[in-house]
Specification:
alpha+beta; 3 helices; elongated
Length: 283
Amino acid sequence: MTAVAALLGAMAAAPAPTPTPTSGWTAGAAGATQERPYVYLEGPAGSVLEDTLSVSNPGARPLTVRLGGQGTPLAFAARTVTVPARTRADVPFAVTVTAGTAPGDHRGTVTVAADGREVRVPVHLRVSGPSLAALTVEDVRLDASGTLRYTLVNRGSTVLTPRLSVRADGTFGTVLDRPSRALPLTLRPGESATRTEPWPHPPALDSVTVHLRATAPGATPAEARAERVFVSTGAAVAGTGALLAAAGAAALALRRRRARAVEEAENPVEQAQLVDVTAGADR
């Protein structure tokens, strides 16, 4: 009994062998002969669409994978699946298209994780119905440094790749003109993106109106504007100096007029004689 107990104690104290990782496993949408690189589903709002995920385990030991999803409402037959050695397992899953889902293209991802790595399988969902491309520009602001802030909103049912042009008009004409260019973003239906547009050298002294024009294929151009008065310290000092000089000249002219009026009031006889002489000369 003592020898048996010692043997059992030694077995319990010995560390368990570390399983050899299976790094050659693959995952994708199930196909007839091989895994597809992505899932494609199409249906109307309010429907439930089904497909199958395939996980292949070429290793010599069972593989346990954890399933998840992002971007679309995914439901799996099981969140954890053990795939026997040298076997392919097919796992059904469903995507619920809610009644309020806008028609058009939507994106999601199925995630499969095991042995310290993760495989992402894209889900392309096409919700049937009339498509609408609609883009708006909102919350346009221009700060004192010249930085322009605005928000683009996809109000339609299709994926948009917007372009933007910017023009600024001052008191004496156009002070900024940036032609239309593609923006490094993609807006899905209902998505918005807040961006900034720098203006390194805005006017020192001017009243400016900035015009934004956003476009996207199939969408009506969206326009918005913002206004601001720029007054830098140097321009303010120069402007104040000019105003003071003008005010000084006006005050001097006023003092001279008042002095002449006082002089005329103090010598009324001389002024009258001057008038008489002038009048006699006329006769």
